[in-house]
Specification:
- The chain is an alpha/beta fold.
- About 30% of the residues lie in helices and about 15% in strands.
- It is built from 9 helices and 12 strands.
- Helix 7 links the parallel strand 9 and strand 10 (about 225).
- The longest helix has 19 residues, at about 90-110.
- The radius of gyration is 21 Å and the shape is elongated.
- It binds NADPH dihydro-nicotinamide-adenine-dinucleotide phosphate and oxalic acid (OXD).
- NADPH dihydro-nicotinamide-adenine-dinucleotide phosphate binds near residues 145 and 277.
- The site of NADPH dihydro-nicotinamide-adenine-dinucleotide phosphate has 29 residues, from helix 5 and strand 7.
């Protein structure tokens, strides 16, 4: 059985070497190696190039290096009816929760206000309200959103989540579907995006959305945290909202174009907290173990876990 590594912007050779250790009875090839496309049964993918699936007529499973599979499901030459398995891992979830908690608490504790005061050498005491007065709204209550919601609730925040279908998570107020989106926004002070990027969620972080957020709880205005995909955000409108006060601050880990171009107005805004797509990473050890386990189980029983529903896009 042969597995092809197709990992753009990632050290493909390093992953291949680790897979050779974990799956000694399998042949692991990279794009630099000579191989017959017909022998490829598995492909391990991140940011697939246009020719990623060319000639792979005997492909049985597509494994995604990422938790997000938008780059795979929208691939113009994605082979039909081949199962896609995505990355789901406790360590990645924990990392994402760290990022979300850090940024939510930062906005609750008025980081921008104190940064501006410091620049002016201004000693002005303002005591942030307690966490239970702050309404956090998490868009997406999947693997990542659910954990972040539960941890924020443990810290005392008043947490709600919005997903396609209700989940019944203890201690979290739930909203679901398009019909309940406005009610969810109307009670939200800090809006966190952990949605998959699909046609329905494209540009969901836009002025129209921001104007519907609750305005009277956070002194500087409502805030957003996006650690999902740049495709979720209208960056021109975020810049406008950050300048005119519609938003108090934004934490953005992902961008429409990465790296974020130097011309982006977001770089210069002191209430925009930019990180270079580092909220959570699929670690090599965990990734190799997860895929090796999946392959061993699949070959023994035919079972695959964490399958993507291509019709939904995640
Ligand atoms: P999941 O698939 O587990 O969860 C997705 C959630 O979004 C589900 O609750 C789903 O609802 C909800 N959802 C999907 N579409 C809609 C919609 N149209 N309206 C309302 N809710 C919707 O994904 P994960 O939690 O594992 O990951 C989320 C995203 O995080 C990934 O797709 C990826 O893009 C991003 N990510 C970013 C990283 C980074 O470093 N910045 C790292 C890892 C992931 P339902 O369950 O009801 O269908
Ligand atoms: C992912 C990511 O989707 O790192 O896993 O963005």
């Amino acid at each position: 059985m042969t597995m092809l590594m197709h990992l753009s912007d990632v050290n493909e050779q390093e992953w291949a070497a680790a897979f050779r250790q974990a799956l000694p009875n399998h042949k692991i090839v990279t794009r630099q190696d000579h191989f017959d496309p017909q022998e490829i049964k598995y492909i391990y993918v991140w940011k697939p190039e246009d020719d990623a699936f060319n000639g792979l007529d005997n492909l049985e499973v597509i494994f995604s290096l990422g938790a997000g599979v938008d780059g795979i499901v929208k691939h113009p030459r994605l082979p039909k009816n081949i199962p896609i398995v995505r990355f789901v891992d406790d360590e990645l979830t924990q990392c994402m929760t760290d990022y979300v908690v850090a940024n939510v608490t930062m906005h609750h504790r008025q980081a921008t206000r104190y940064k501006r005061d410091q620049a002016q050498k201004n000693w002005s005491q303002y005591y942030p309200e307690r966490a239970s007065t702050i309404n956090v709204g998490i868009m997406g209550l999947g693997q990542l959103g659910k954990d972040a919601a539960e941890k924020l609730a443990m810290l005392g925040y008043n947490v709600a989540g919005w997903s396609r279908s209700p989940k019944g998570i203890d201690g979290i107020t739930e909203f679901s579907g398009v019909d309940q989106f406005d009610a969810f926004l109307a009670r939200t002070d800090i809006l966190v995006c952990l949605l998959p990027y699909t046609p329905e969620t494209e540009d969901i972080l836009c002025l129209e959305t921001f104007k519907k957020l609750r305005r009277d709880a956070l002194p500087g205005g409502p805030c957003i945290v996006n650690a999902a995909r740049g495709g979720h955000q209208n960056e021109e409108e975020i810049a406008v909202a950050l300048k005119d006060g519609t938003l108090g601050a934004a934490s953005l880990d992902v961008f429409k174009v990465e790296p974020l171009p130097a011309e982006s107005p977001l770089w210069a805004l002191d209430n925009c907290y930019i990180t270079p797509h580092i909220a959570a990473i699929s670690g090599l050890d965990a990734g190799v173990k997860l895929v090796a386990d999946q392959i061993n189980r699949y070959e023994a029983t035919g079972e695959l876990r964490h399958l993507v529903d291509v019709s939904k896009g995640y």
